[in-house]
Amino acid sequence: MNKKPILILTLFLGFLMYNFTASAQQAYVKPKLSNKDSWSLVLIPDPQSYVKFERNVPLVNLMTAWIKENVDSLNTQFVLCTGDLVEQNDLLNPNGKAANQTSKQQWSNIRGAFQKLDGYVPYVLATGNHDYGHVSAEYRSTQYDQYFSSDQNGLNAKALREVGPNLNGNSSAVNAVYEFTTPHLKKILVMVLEFAPRDTVLQWAKSVVDKPAYAEHDVIVLTHVFLDKNSKHIVNQGYKIQDANYGAAVFEKLVKPSKNIRLVFSGHIGEPNNFEGHIGFRQDKNAAGKTVSQMTFNAQAMGGGWFGNGGDGWLRYLEFLPDGKTVKVKTFSPLFAISPATQSLAYKTEKNQEFEFEL
């Protein structure tokens, strides 16, 4: 009797069983909270490369549409964006390679994406270097206020508590503070600061967090430049603007002396098709001895580099558990999740992409 065909058949069946088991273990699971009493925030990285090419605009709309669809299931309390909302703040003649959308079109594109969230969930958007000047922070002027104001989303207007100084001394949502009460009845302030904030802005920010009325609040700081890819505070970036404070200075002048700043979110950094060059995380103590968790998250050069698809749709959602201290981080792409053919790619599960930390 020839046993060779039987052996081949046995090996083939074993191979099928192995792959079936592996597939079952890696079956796609729609994002959900690990605890029904948790709440979440969503972090959107720099969207500039989505809005600078007409072909990429649908991807950022997909991201905000996904957030809208999952507000209830993820109990999302607010959405944060790390800045660089556009690629060029004030450019009339894109060359077609670096961008094929004018600045007006870019600002309209990003406004249209976030407009989907109006009335559903509040969102706070930082300004980045590309949101100022002609192309990238040649001077401190931005079109932000023409496209985003606190009264465009009623939920933002309801949460707005403090407004900081802009360059002309007028009110502006570029520097602002929003107050939220979590489902666990904890008061949170979200403080957004302009790109490379000026000393007057940091002085204003410190005066706000020091107010007795906010002494029991936990404060989240949202700004564009803070950590590098090695999770070190960024010292200098060399832009032409004056009176600029980057990560190291913001930490020393505002975060470290505070007693209630607990989280800092930022973006800015990136390397073509290398996620390791887009992220950073560290924890330090503030003046009260409390841990400050600092996270940099970006994805803009994933999906084809600086002129690719804008970032493969990557975002993060952070789950805050009912114990009041545990935070679970998930890195997720609605773009990959939308099709069964790519759902296996929808999560980043490396230890620096899916992890938990304690406040």
Automatic annotation (TrEMBL):
InterPro entries linked: Calcineurin-like_PHP, Metallo-depent_PP-like, STPP_CPPED1
Domain Calcineurin-like phosphoesterase: 65-269
Annotated signal peptide: 1-24
Key words of the record: Signal
Keyword set includes Metal-binding: no
Protein name according to UniProt: Metallophosphoesterase
Lineage, top ranks: Bacteria, Pseudomonadati, Bacteroidota, Sphingobacteriia, Sphingobacteriales
